[in-house]
Amino acid sequence: MTRPPPRVLAVLLVVIAAALALTLVNLVRGGSDVAPPSSPAGRAVTALTTSTGTQALRAVPDDFEATLGYQPVLQDGELVRPDGDCSSPVPLPRTFEPACRQHDLGYDLLRHAALTGHLSAAGPAPRSTSCSASASSGPARPRGTLPAT
After folding, report:
1. Which residues lie closer than 8 Å to 132 by C-beta, 6 or more apart?
2. Domain spans of the chain?
3. Environment class of residue 39 by beta-carbon count within 10 Å: exposed (0-12), middle (13-18) or buried (19+)?
4. pLDDT, tens digit, for every residue of 122-135?
5. What are the beta bridge partners of residue 34?
6. What's the confidence (pLDDT) of residue 41?
7. How many of the other CB atoms lie within 10 Å of CB of 71?
8. What is the DSSP pairing of strand 73-75 with strand 78-80?
9. In angstroms, how far is CA 133 from the centroid of its own chain?
10. How many CA atoms lie within 13 A of 136 on its CB side?
11. Interval 81-104 mean pLDDT
């Protein structure tokens, strides 16, 4: 087996070092669109992903309906966006609907945080938590987008 030329090894080491540096910077930053857990929407996201539907309903910010135009509801014990749906490039079984409605609510909680000035670029990422636990169609916004902060 022949050894690669020193120049190839140097380039390879630089690429690996750059990838490692970018990974560390991203880990330190903690992700993007974040509702801090101490904010009303952050507490609601935490409750939505870790508690019962009833507990999550109690955690919904008081001004949620006034801000986003609807009140989340309990459906089969889970807190959901009542008119949420599944947006997918392929047809999904109807059994996905409750999870899609909860997913929509999770994104709306992030939208609420953005609209009320509680969206941060530091800390854990409720956006990914919301996605993994259960996205949203907010008023006059394309699905999956957040307003500019």
Report:
1. none
2. 1-30, 40-133
3. buried
4. 334 444 444 444 43
5. 120
6. 87
7. 12
8. antiparallel
9. 9
10. 27
11. 91
